[in-house]
Design goal:
With 581 residues, the chain is mainly α. It is built from 25 helices and seven strands. Helix 24 links the parallel strand 6 and strand 7. It is elongated. This is Sulphate transporter.
Length: 581
């Protein structure tokens, strides 16, 4: 039996190639036709049209140049699709990173940002190769909703200056509590032309989304705003006036200069990038799976994200991650496989090579309008309201994560939110674990025995010195104290104790230690302890922790246990004395 089970486990264990083969090769093995290429080309063009204004807007909001946003989408986006574990993932700069990237630029400069991006790519690749992608998906839902809403609020606040065309007397602070008073005092300096253009951009995007949802509303709104700015010669800030335009080619890849001290300085930022990037990319892959019925390879995806970030840094780009909105657009546009994401990057490259001079006329107010819409769409408004009213525990996790994101730090918010969510889960799980006495239970062989919850036959329990207790649910550290106190009281008044584990799917070392303590106490008082209903896995764990005969007896069922406890000597045919039966 044991050999068979182990052989079966070895058969279903995925191999290295199954875990880390990019979906691009899987797609090619299945057969790739000209019709598939046409579908991917159309989807890639659609996504590129969406990604073009977003990549520049996110980069500008992050404290980088619009060209860096395009480099990120081209280099990172191509590699995420070519090497990733998802058929439909679209990589590029993401709004979720704006806060972290801007803070890193402010603290360490652009060189520090590029070094942190390179280092975060290395961390992501290591996470993937160590197969930790599965665990990253365990982030509680209230945490993701909370930090996403917090990021959205910060993104919107970061665009108020460009939306209103404010003239600040001092540099714009990064922290929200410091930023808002500076913006408030600068409100009288607003520019009416800038406000009008920003409002028109937002209005155009929303109107097109409602009446023409399949049109590239963001790109059309930005193009229209650029034409108005050019034709009317509006005196407002543009990409050309602030950045001098964008280059018409990719830069030569260069390894950033670094020292050991510089690496230590940017390591916290790199860890934050890796943490958020892994969460964002795997969440995006899960969304794509839900839309298509496919399954992504999480560890392969993390490795691809790592390589993409390292390559983006070499080309002077910023952080790369899977982007939910662009990935969903890719799926809706009819993409067949990873070629769509690769072609989206090539279409963006074509824009740089052919139409780069036109980018200098794009007004910053229109890009700020694009980000304002993105920030609004990022907030999961229905989920936020539902979680607030669902339970006090979920509301506490959600609000704590949201407020820490706003006023402290994103990484701190995720860590604290995850810790609170874990404590809440432990509390809820402990309530599902119970211990019940022998009545009213029936015999194991009753025809109506349902789910191991059947009561025992009282005719077979005629010894008042024997007490039977059944533990149900996961027996772990969260429930060990309450169950242990009950078992301790039983041992004081009875000569024999039977503990039924037939409804326990799992126990941990704390629970095993509780049983061990009970067994030692029972031995001092000459109380016999017998465990019944234990599975092979439970016996293996208990034996490994030293809980074995003669400390306790093991029996397969109640009748056997009763005979063992009454006998002067243990009967070998009735007692399971080894964990491998």
């Amino acid at each position: 039996m044991t050999t068979t089970k182990r052989a079966f486990s070895a058969q279903i264990e995925p191999t290295f190639s199954e875990l880390f083969t990019p979906k691009l090769f899987t797609t090619l093995r299945e057969g790739y036709s000209l019709a598939d290429l046409r579908a991917d080309a159309l989807a890639g063009l659609t996504v590129a049209i969406v990604a073009l204004p977003l990549s520049m807007a996110i980069a500008i909001a992050s404290g980088a140049s619009p060209a860096q946003g395009l480099y990120t989408a081209i280099v990172g986006g191509f590699l995420v699709s070519a090497l990733g574990g998802s058929r439909f993932q679209i990589g590029g700069p993401a709004g979720a990173f704006i806060v972290l990237v801007a803070a890193t630029v402010q603290a360490h400069g652009m060189d520090g940002l590029i070094l942190a991006t390179l280092l975060s790519g290395l961390i992501l690749a290591i996470l993937g190769f160590f197969r930790l992608g599965t665990y990253i998906k365990f982030i509680p839902y209230p945490v993701t909703v909370g930090f996403t809403a917090g990021i959205a609020a910060i993104i919107f606040a970061s665009q108020i200056k460009e939306l209103l065309g404010l003239t600040l007397t001092t540099s714009e602070p990064g922290p929200l509590l410091e930023k808002l008073p500076v913006l408030w005092t600068s409100l009288p300096s607003y520019d009416s032309a800038t406000v009008t253009l920003a409002v028109a951009t937002i209005g155009s995007i929303l109107i097109l989304k409602h009446y023409r949802p399949h049109w590239p509303g963001m790109l059309l709104a930005v193009v229209a705003a650029s034409l108005v700015t050019l034709l009317l010669d509006l005196p407002i800030a543009t990409i050309g006036s602030k950045f001098g335009g964008i280059p018409s080619s990719l830069p030569t890849p260069v390894l950033p200069e670094f020292t050991l001290a510089k690496l230590q300085d940017v390591l916290p930022s790199a860890l934050s990038f890796a943490l958020l990037g892994s969460i964002e990319s795997l969440l995006s892959a899960v969304v794509a799976d839900g839309m298509t019925g496919r399954r992504h390879r999480s560890n392969c995806e993390l490795v691809a994200q790592g390589v993409a970030n390292m390559a983006s840094a070499l080309f002077g780009g910023i952080c790369v991650t899977g982007t939910i909105a662009r990935t969903a657009t890719n799926v809706r546009a009819g993409a067949h496989g990873p070629f769509a994401g690769m072609l989206h990057a090539l279409f963006l490259l074509a824009f740089i090579l052919i139409a780069a001079p036109l980018a200098r006329y794009i007004p910053l107010a229109s890009l700020a309008g694009v980000l304002a819409v993105v920030a609004w769409n990022m907030v999961e408004k229905h989920a936020f309201a539902t979680l607030i009213w669902a339970s006090r525990g979920d509301a506490a996790v959600l609000l704590t994560t949201f407020l820490l994101t706003l006023f402290r730090d994103l990484t701190e918010a995720i860590v604290v939110g995850f810790a609170l969510g874990s404590v809440l889960f432990i509390h809820r799980m402990s309530k599902t674990t119970a211990i019940e006495t022998q009545t009213p239970f029936v015999a194991e062989d009753r025809a109506d025995n349902i789910g191991n919850r059947a009561p025992y036959d009282q005719a077979r329990i005629n010894d008042p010195d024997v007490v039977i207790y059944r533990i149900s649910g996961v027996f772990f550290f969260g429930a060990a104290a309450s169950i242990g106190s009950v078992l301790d009281r039983i041992a004081d008044t009875h000569r024999a104790l039977i503990i039924d584990f037939s409804s326990v799917p799992f126990l941990d070392s704390t629970a095993a230690n509780t049983i061990e303590g009970l067994a030692h106490k029972a031995k001092r008082r000459n109380v016999k302890v017998c465990l019944i209903g234990t599975t092979h896995e439970l016996r293996r764990d208990l034996f490994a922790l030293g809980i074995k005969p003669p400390m306790v007896h093991y029996a397969r069922e109640l009748s056997c246990a009763l005979r063992v406890l009454k006998a002067k000597k243990t009967e070998p045919t009735e007692v399971v004395s080894t964990p491998l039966d």
